[in-house]
Amino acid sequence: MTLYVVYVPDTGHVVGAVNAVGVTLPDDAEAESLTGRELPLRVNLGAGEIATLPLAAGKLAVHAPDDQPGVFADPLAFGVEQVRDAKPKPALRELPSWENPDLAFTTDSLVVTLPFEVTVQTPVLALVAVGQSVRVLPGSIQAGGESIQLGVTVTAGFYGVLVLVAGLAGVLTKVEKKA
Amino acid sequence: MTGPLRPAFQEGQVLAAADLAATVAYARGATAHHARLLHDWGIADGLELTTEDRTDPTTNARYVEVSVSPGSAIDGTGREIVVPAPVVLSEAEFAQVNGADLPTPEPYPVFLAAVDRARTATGPGSCAGATGPTRVEESYQVLFGRLGDERLVAEQRPPAVGAAPADPPTRWLVLLGYVRWTDGHFTAVTSTARTVSLRYAGVRADTVVARSGTLSLRSRPSVQEGQPALVLSGEDPPSLVYGLYQGSGSVSPLMTVAANGNLTIAGSFSGQISAGSVLATSGSATDGMLLPLPSGVTPEEVADGRVSLHVYVTPRVPPTPNDTTLTSPAEATVDGERRVRCRVRLFDYAAAPPQVFEQPGAVDFLVLATVAATSGGGG
User: Fold this and answer.
1) CA distances from B8 to A91, B14, B17, B25 (A)
2) ipTM for this model
3) Can you tell me whether residue A74 is helix, strand or coil?
4) Backbone conformation region of residue B276, classed left if phi is above 0, alpha if psi is from -120 to 50, else beta
5) Model pLDDT for residues B280-331, shown as the tens digit of each residue
6) pLDDT value, residue B127
7) pLDDT tens for each residue of B227-266
8) Inter-chain touch B292–A34, beta carbons under 8 Å
9) pLDDT score, position B328
10) Cα distance from B284 to chain A (closest Cα, Å)?
11) Do B292 and A20 touch (CB under 8 A)?
């Protein structure tokens, strides 16, 4: 039984996993075969409201890593270590957890603040569900920095947010924009 | 238009040259009709472009001397073209056609065509004195084409069904291969260029029978180890065998159909799912992923109803951060796309205040794919 994960190449985060008896994919399989046109990640905003954050299949990749049962419990806590001009490393990397992530909306941005300063330029990808639409907010934190402002304007309320910072466990949560 | 005219002779008839010519023409016509209508035109035997390494004494450049090996072909008019001895290709004749081209790695086509050459018979002459040659050699000529002329081969049209052989023969190009040309010499040969390959003679037949009781089809003129063969055997018991030739010349079966209909194969089988069969897969998947289909089942078969899916999912219990956190599934299902929808609710009753939160979950699944007997699954 082969484990397959789909991941975001920009940051390396695993966003979905599947294994099945007797099912093998070709080496050049695309994520669409496992996710359809998009992979919808969902966040409960409360009061029965669910925010959906779809990741386009074209922006995802497939990897068949060594077995890692923990990836089914929390896929965002694992990363794929990519190698230039070669296949990714066979073992998934368990990413450092990010307790109580500091995510906050300002008047015109989503501020992501890390618990430490990064030593190298660090890619960041955030998705914010605003009603029926989704804002995709790519960026990077410069070496020596610890936060980034990603431009987005929202009204007061709860929003589903996915934040992927390279090297840290991904965060899928709701964030309140206070009035 | 009349049919073929067969000469008939009467006792005491004075035979004119036209009578004898008609006899020959009748035979030629019958042969051409047979070759044209019961065979596909092409190379029948030999006629390969072969090379021998040479060195230019003035430049020390290496090149090859190209020859056409002896053989025969049938052209599209039904004319048999025989090359009785090896023929060395002339670089001078090639240069006359293509010598002005800029240097190119592209290979040039080489053709064979029928040609008649008048010959004088040896032996006693005519009582009336010679008025012309009394023999015609059914000869050949090797022609060099321009780049791209190989496409002319497919554009040739055969004569009408009842047409007699033309005199002189209609020019019909039989592709022999290609030559590469560098600095005034041939440097290589090839059998395919620009998607146009050699054409070999074929047979037109609705029935093929074997007198020995065993009919074999093979992909090469001679038996070669490792090459495929199809053998229809009328031995006791009869069988149909597909296999590969062994060194001994026998066929090692890969697939055998026995007289009772039993099918035996040496490899694996894939194809349409037979009616009534059930295929299964099981595993685990996280929220949002599509459940995989059992091996051999395609999404199209599911979409058009040939295959029905039966899906059973069980939510996985996630690890909890402490002993005071309880979990319960908030959602564990699969939608019409086969997409997993699983959320798990966690409740920490010891927290102050008590906390309830949700997170994406994962499921263990079992997928059964069934083909109804009435759905035409190929069974």
Assistant:
1) 91, 12, 14, 13
2) 0.94
3) coil
4) left
5) 999 999 999 999 999 888 888 898 888 899 999 999 998 888 889 999 999 9
6) 62
7) 999 999 998 899 999 999 998 989 999 999 999 999 999 9
8) yes
9) 93
10) 5
11) yes
B222 half-sphere exposure, CB direction, 13 A CA radius: 4
- CB distance A43 to A53 below 8 Å: yes
Q: What is the DSSP letter of A71?
A: G
d(CA B200, CA B221): 11
In chain B, what are the domain boundaries?
17-120+133-202, 213-265, 278-370
Sign, CA dihedral B291-B297-B300-B304, equals negative
Cα separation of B147 and B272, whole Å?
Answer: 46
State the best of B282, B286, B366, B367 to mutate against chain A, taking most chain A CBs within 10 Å: B286
Nearest to B80 by CA among B22, B156, B29, B138: B138
Nearest by CB: B282 against A21, A24, A36: A21
Q: Is B306 left (phi over 0), alpha (psi -120 to 50) or beta?
A: alpha
A44–chain B Cβ distance below 8 A for any pair:
yes
* B306 to chain A, closest Cα gap in Å: 20
**Two tokens, residue A12:** 């390396």
Give the gap in angstroms from C-alpha A13 to the nearest C-alpha of chain B.
14
Cross-chain residue pair A22–B316, CB shorter than 8 Å: no
Helix (H) or strand (E) holding B358: strand B355-360
> Per the CB < 8 Å rule, is A41 touching B282?
no
Radius of gyration, CA atoms only, chain A: 16
The answer to whether B281 contacts A23, with C-beta atoms less than 8 Å apart, is: yes
Q: Which value, to the nearest 10 degrees, does the dihedral of the CA atoms of residues B121, B125, B131, B136 take?
A: -10
Which tens digits make up the pLDDT trace of B15-62?
Answer: 998 999 999 999 999 999 999 999 999 999 999 999 999 999 989 999
- On whether any CB of chain A is under 8 Å from the CB of B80, the answer is no
Top pLDDT among B354 and B197 is at: B197
| Predicted pLDDT of residue A104 | 94
- Give the SS3 label for residue B170: coil
Q: Is A61 on the interface with B (CB under 8 A)?
A: no
CB B116 within 8 A of CB B167: yes
Residue B190 · residue B181 · CB < 8 Å: no
Domains in chain A (CATH in brackets) are 2-94 (no CATH), 102-177 (2.60.40)
Facing residues of B189 across strands?
Answer: B179
